[in-house]
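Sequence in, structure out.
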Amino acid sequence: MDAISAVAPSEPNTETSAQNSLETSIEFSAGDLIGYYKTSPTAFDFYFENTATPNSYVNQERYENDSNSNALNQVCGYDYMTDDLRSAYFALFGTYNGSVSGTTSCRSASRDVVGTLSGTWFLDSDISDGTAQVDNGNYRWRLDIAMALDQEIKFGTLGNELKRIYSDYETHKDPATVTTSHCYEFLVNPTTPQGYAYFNIVSDSKMQIVYNDTETCPNEFPTSGYVTYYR
């Protein structure tokens, strides 16, 4: 920790240090103590980057042009642990919907599957100078869609929250298999509807969506009122 203290600000940030970076890079060796954290009520996020192994996306150029994105080079930190330690962490994996067993390897930070709904979509079609982080009402500038290890499908973000479709929902369908149109219906409980998200794949890099937070899925994809997202 002395190595961090030597290059860190002398006064702590009393509000938030999220997204702050050190001006000087630090190298650590295996087994070095780098800090402590309080288990409750606070937590922390961490990520690893490896510029030698960029992740693969449907529109690679978007991520290469976006200087504010760390998604291009994110890798799984558990892959850099010893076999025993990695296995111990994998045994503890869980999700919002319960535990996950049998995990033996990490998945890529990219959940893009060409020709399908799965992956990350953006409101901004212009990728020449990064991605504009501007929302459009209930439609956020970035929409991540993927299925978790426990088969739970996550939509982040629609409206003001992360939306979920569980495996026992009637409209459950792996986004990686949605190649045309599909409507996901959200529920307050197993029988009470709480809106829907209807998707229409236009091309490998373009899709349309209609989100409604009160009604049930219509019979067909609407001919108007949709919003377009891009890879």
